[in-house]
Amino acid sequence: MRPGKAGASRSPRGTAVELTVQVLAYLIMAASLVVAAVGVVLPVLPGVPLAAVGAVAAAWVRGFDVVGWSPVVWTVLLAVLAQALDVVSAAWGAKVYGSRRAGLWGGAIGSVVGLLLFPPLGFLLGALAGAVLAELWTGRALREATRAGVGALIGTMGGVVAKLAIVIAMAFVMLPALR
């Protein structure tokens, strides 16, 4: 067929530009997913929100008309879910293991302090130590305080696993949409 007719093949230059744009979109998304996974395990980076930003950027580069809005919206919703799980998981774990309000606050504050003092994995030990110290401070027995601290640690680790699963789900939602 002659160029310009319906069904005509694209010019080699147009195909090369499209391929370049597609590869760039994949690279943006892949890089943001890697940063997200690292940020989940090493919470110095705001990993999951960066993956959502990467999804929007990749869709913009590729073209929202090609990608569609649905995968982008689902990826952003997954990022919101991940952040909510991050907030709730340690508190839920501590509560299940018998923590009081002081232990919940102690675990949250301990996570931040642990991360600052012993990066990158100090947030895990910090959650445990913070919950135990806060429970002891309010007069709980060492055994009960330790149980609450273990709950905070388990909850925090559960949150990490859940967030990694969400990053994987983000990959399954966005990468096929970039074709």
Characteristics:
mainly alpha
Tell me what you see in this structure.
The chain is mainly alpha-helical and 179 residues long. The protein has one domain. The protein has helices at residues 12-41, 47-62, 64-67, 69-96, 101-117, 122-137, 142-177. It is elongated and about 75 Å long. The relative contact order is 0.15.
Approximate shape = elongated
* Distance between the ends: 26 Å
Low-confidence stretches: 1-5
Structure summary, number of beta strands: 0
How many domain units?
A: 1
- Helical content band: over 70%
* Approximate strand percentage: under 5%
Order of helices and strands: HHHHHHH
Radius of gyration: 22 Å
Helix/sheet category: mainly alpha
Q: Which sheet architecture does the biggest sheet show? A: none
Mean pLDDT: 88
Q: How many helical stretches?
A: 7
